[in-house]
Amino acid sequence: MKLTARQVNRFNMFKLPAAYFTGVRAKSLDDNQCTVQVKHKWINQNPFRSMFWAVQGMAAELTTGALVMGKIHDSGKSVSMLVLNNRAEFRKKATGKITFICDEGNKIDDALKQTIETGEGQTVWLNAYGTNQDGVVVSNFDFEWTLKLKSKK
Questions:
Q1: CB count, 10 Å around CB of 99?
Q2: Separation CA 93–CA 26 (nearest Å)
Q3: Cα separation of 84 and 136, whole Å?
Q4: How many other β-carbons are positioned within 10 Å of the β-carbon of residue 96?
Q5: Which candidate, 121, 61, 53, 41, places its Cα nearest to that of 92?
Q6: DSSP for 35-46?
Q7: pLDDT per residue over 76-120, tens digit each?
Q8: The pTM is what?
Q9: Contacting residues for 151 by C-beta, under 8 A, at least 6 apart
Q10: Rounded to the nearest 10 degrees, what angle do helices 53-75 and 105-118 cross at?
Q11: Where are the alpha helices (DSSP H) in the chain?
Q12: Staple partner for 33: which of 24, 103, 111, 123, CB 3.0–4.6 Å?
């Protein structure tokens, strides 16, 4: 069974409540792409009347993380995942509905295959960009994910 956006949102409600309560929601998830939306509102704003950078980061990380989770789930292997590094760039005030997209599932395939075949941990950089309702990029995030086979006890 494939991981779905609905399952990701349910997971967030129980395991990542900060993301859930600030309005971060997965909208679509397939083999290569994940889309997450968050709407600027009182609960997630900064003093400058735009979306707080950390809320944007949660949404961006979710696009990449949900793809990684889905690929691990599909592999049937026990693989741990963790963010090792991240970079962010903010281009415009984030107001209204912001849509984050990561469309780099193919990069995960390569790293996961190497992890499973060699038993050695791998890293993969994934990009997520957020656009406003006018299609203007408001922020751009890169996350370095580590993948490692879990040891059997």
A1: 18
A2: 22
A3: 28
A4: 13
A5: 53
A6: EEEEE--GGGB-
A7: 999 999 999 999 999 999 999 999 999 999 999 999 999 999 999
A8: 0.93
A9: none
A10: 50
A11: 5-15, 17-21, 53-75, 105-118
A12: 103
What is residue 2's three-state secondary structure? coil
| Answer CATH for 5-149 from 3.40.50.300, 3.30.1330.90, 1.10.3470.10, 3.10.129.10 | 3.10.129.10
> Cα dihedral sign for 17, 98, 54, 61?
positive
- Domain regions of the chain by residue span: 5-149
Read off the tokens for 41.
């509102």
Distance of CA 91 to the CA centre of its chain: 19
Q: Which of 67, 74, 58 is nearest to 18 (CA)?
A: 58
Q: Which 3 state secondary structure label does DSSP give 120?
A: coil
Q: Which two tokens stand for residue 46?
A: 């900064």
Q: Which residues pair with 127 in a beta bridge?
A: 142
Torsions phi, psi of 148, nearest 5?
Answer: -145, 135
Question: Which residues in 28-67 are b (16+ Cβ under 10 Å) and which e?
Answer: ebeeeebbbbbebeeebbeeeebbbeebbbbbbbbbbbbb
Residue for token digits 């996961």?
112
Over residues 32-71, the pLDDT tens digits come to: 999 999 999 999 999 999 999 999 999 999 999 999 999 9
